[in-house]
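Sequence in, structure out.
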Amino acid sequence: MKNLLLFASLLAASLTANAATFQGSTSGTFENPTGPAGMVTTGVGTNEFTWGEGAYSHTSWQSCGWFCFQPVAQYHDPSKLKMTGTGFNTDVDQTFIAGYLNFYNGIIYSGTQAEGVDLSLTLNFTSPSAFSETFNYGFSLNNVVNPTGDTTTFLTSVPTKFYSYAGTDYYFELLGFGIHTKNGIKLIDEIFLKEGKNTTVKLLGQFTSMPSEVPLPAAVWLFGSGLMGFMAMRRRAKAQQA
């Protein structure tokens, strides 16, 4: 019984030791915008993507003489998404910040908008080994003429396998946007913003794991086989002595 308990404790220690802690940094670029034929975009392939042709509006009047006033046109910047990467140091099943997304909701002319864009998110790992992996996520861009506000929606993702280590497969999932509330960080999948305003939200991610087809390291199996063989030899020796 003591030998079995020893084997179980060593097995648990081996599995714990093989659990990966991930360290590194993130970066991102925007790719593959979609929209109407008159879509206007800049920054494709960079971390700062704009869409739409900035509109002019008459927001004030300027005196042009005695009882003379003329409208003053104000230019508005196009809408923009900006991805800022960050460092990470996280364990499995722990939510962490995978970057920051700034959204500016511009006032643009109808027909020049983008309706969707992909975020190409790269994780540059330094631990448990040095490598890079890129994941692609879609965003839906809702542009309405003269709205109270517009939305950027994160399209649902699924966990993606990217790494195998010591008999375990590891997956990464981008969960969505994180915003601060009085009760902590709240996970949402949509940013709603009035025209002419901007906000920054967190991109939240998580690593998960599942046993691979060979769930235990070979060394553990060899140790277990040797221990079982040793116990069998002891039983035979005791039987011969009896």
